[in-house]
């Protein structure tokens, strides 16, 4: 049986996870969730350190890794990634909702 993630991983901000979960799943992404807002700084640091180590392992094994970011922990995540030798990962392009079903008022 093959892996449904298709060697694709999305590192996703907690605030964006729920609205994008189905879309990312349809596109074959496995997901690494970033910490939610409001956690203690030490907890966030440990979480991001673990995330960076996972990303490093995935990139070493030729997975496509993308970031779905809300900006909350961008600088801290970039620092954690740099510490494990991972260059900046590319941003996932969030598709705007379709307007094809909208009908102008007449």
Quick overview:
By secondary structure, the chain is an alpha/beta fold. The protein is 41% helix and 16% strand.
State the main characteristics.
about 110 residues, alpha/beta, Rossmann fold, 4-stranded parallel β-sheet, 3 helices, 4 strands, globular
CATH architecture: 3-Layer(aba) Sandwich
Q: What is the number of domains?
A: 1
* CATH class placement: Alpha Beta
Estimate the helix proportion, in percent: 40-55%
CA distance, first residue to last residue: 53 Å
Largest sheet: 4 strands, parallel
Task: Please tell me what the overall shape is.
Answer: globular
What kind of assembly state do the chains in view correspond to? single chain
How would you spell out the order of helices and strands? Answer: EHEHEHE
DSSP summary: helix tally = 3
Q: Strand order across the biggest sheet?
A: 2-1-3-4
Structural class by helix and strand composition? alpha/beta
Q: What's the overall average pLDDT, rounded?
A: 89
Beta percentage is: 15-25%
CATH topology name: Rossmann fold
């Amino acid at each position: 049986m093959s892996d449904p993630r298709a060697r694709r991983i999305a590192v996703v901000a907690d605030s964006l996870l729920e609205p994008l979960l189905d879309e990312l799943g349809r596109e074959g992404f496995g997901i690494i969730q970033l910490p939610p807002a409001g956690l203690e700084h030490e907890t966030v640091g440990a979480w991001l350190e673990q995330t960076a180590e996972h990303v490093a392992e995935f990139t070493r094994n030729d997975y496509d890794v993308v970031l779905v970011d809300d900006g909350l922990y961008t600088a801290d995540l970039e620092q954690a990634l740099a510490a494990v030798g991972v260059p900046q990962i590319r941003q996932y392009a969030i598709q705007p909702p379709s307007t094809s079903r909208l009908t102008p008022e007449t």
